[in-house]
Amino acid sequence: MKGYDFRGAALELGVLVGEDGGADASERIRISLSMLNRHGLVAGATGTGKTKTLQVMAEQLAAQGVPVFLADIKGDLSGLASPGVASERVTSRAAEVGQTWRPVACPVEFLSLGGLGDGVPIRATMTAFGPTLLAKVLELNETQESSLGLIFYFADKNGMPLLDLKDLIAVIRYLTATPEALSGIGGLSTATAGVILRALTNFEAQGAEAFFGEPEFDACDLLRLTGDGRGVISVLELPAVQDRPRLFSTFLMWLLTDLFHVLPEVGDVDKPKLVFFFDEAHLLFDGASKAFLQSIAQTARLIRSKGVGVFFVTQTPQDVPADVLAQLGARVQHALRAFTPQDAKALKATVSTFPTSSYDLERVLTGLGTGEAVVTVLSETGAPTPVAWTRMRAPETLMAPSRPDVVQGVIAASPLQRKYGTAVDRQSAYEILSAKLATQQPADAPEAPGGPAQKGESEPRQTVLENVLESKEFRSLARSAASTLGREITRSIFGTARRRRR
Ligand SMILES: Nc1ncnc2c1ncn2[C@@H]1O[C@H](COP(=O)(O)OP(=O)(O)OP(=O)(O)O)[C@@H](O)[C@H]1O
Ligand SMILES: [Mg+2]
Known about the structure:
Residues 440-468 are annotated as: Disordered. This protein has 502 residues and is of the alpha/beta class. It has 2 domains: 10-123 and 216-411, Rossmann fold, CATH 3.40.50; 137-212 and 423-460, no CATH class. The protein has 19 helices and 12 strands. The chain has helices at residues 50-63, 88-96, 126-137, 142-157, 165-177, 179-184, 190-205, 245-262, 282-285, 290-303, 322-325, 341-352, 361-367, 404-413, 415-420, 429-439, 464-470, 472-480, 484-494, and strands at 10-17, 23-32, 40-43, 68-72, 108-113, 120-122, 233-237, 274-278, 308-314, 330-333, 372-376, 388-392. A 12-stranded mixed sheet has the order 2-1-12-11-10-3-9-8-4-7-5-6. The chain is globular and about 80 Å long. Adenosine-5'-triphosphate binds at residues 44, 46-52, 56, 74, 93, 370-371, 392, 394, 399.
């Protein structure tokens, strides 16, 4: 068995461990930077070293000029902003793996969802977030999801920007109170509109309005370098919303989709433009519709040529659907437990996802020590390297949260704080509809797609737009709005506004 040698730049993960459990510092286990856009998986039971592996990778990426995005669910990754503290354990691990350990602090940007938590607030407008992701957060079924798509379409066509949550609520309230407008949108029933409205008002009651609105976060801000060419690590601090996993995992998906839209094609690159760590990835896949899963698989496939590497972080590979798993070139598998019959089954399934090797993987995977992993990556020619039992390097930044004053100092000094620090509430659907309600008769309210209802007409007037809305093609598009591509087609055909930033 050999370590992994690459001619180009690489990340050092650790060194090879022999069958006797001893580390061989001459056999380095690395990941080529040019292969990072072929994505990866970091998996393992709780407490086995996944977060520290992320820390080790992020530190080296930043040092080599690659920006990093990661979600900090427990708050322990804020340590990236502070130099590590030497200890007996760190020194002995460094010696074992042949690491010249020196404390460093990385250039870090702290972000938070809507300002909940320690970080520059990031928000998405309702329109950019879109009906598919919103349906996922609200746990809507597929019919409700396509109805939500029709509501977005209606608002767009009637010049009612959906920027924040109250805009969307106002539009649905208007629709449910205006039967002729509602009936103009073929396929949206009062009952479904009511269900969506209830889901949204519950969501609002949980404080969700903070996450939507302007200024909208520009995903290009994740691609920053410092003046001396180091990659900035954007850490999305999530402890304050960790009880709302559907919300934050969907936001991560929005960020990734947004990146996909704004980044130009670059093909294969020597080093990635960004490495995106998708932590607690199972939350994204749990209960997701088939179309949603397809859109994740497709985003992962297509974002590669934009130079973005995505690493999913989760407990076992079974959390990841097969067509996503098949795209993950690098695998860092920390220890698995085998306490229950289900564990034993999951262990066997995990083993079957690895290339064949000389190891008894069931035994190795359950016997791995903390900060050890079974690793396979892609060689520079794209072939999987042999599975290697690896002792991971020790992080050189702080292995605990940064002190609150350090975090607050970083946030206060951030150029992003000036850009995103204060929410802006400009005129949008809510204001437009409130103004109409206050001053006008219902007859003057915005037109339903299909034009004003004709008094005395027994048959609703068929317009070109209505024909389109009723058409098989539109309905199937509205359904396939559940896929990113479907949304794109819907946008390009119906001209749904989307802010282009590049
Ligand atoms: N590479 C490493 N070098 C030194 N110590 C490590 C390393 N990896 C793990 N450890 C030790 O193991 C502990 C647990 O690691 P870590 O927090 O990364 O686990 P985890 O898999 O992220 O757990 P959880 O699922 O609970 O988030 C660390 O606090 C640290 O003491
Ligand atoms: Mg962790």
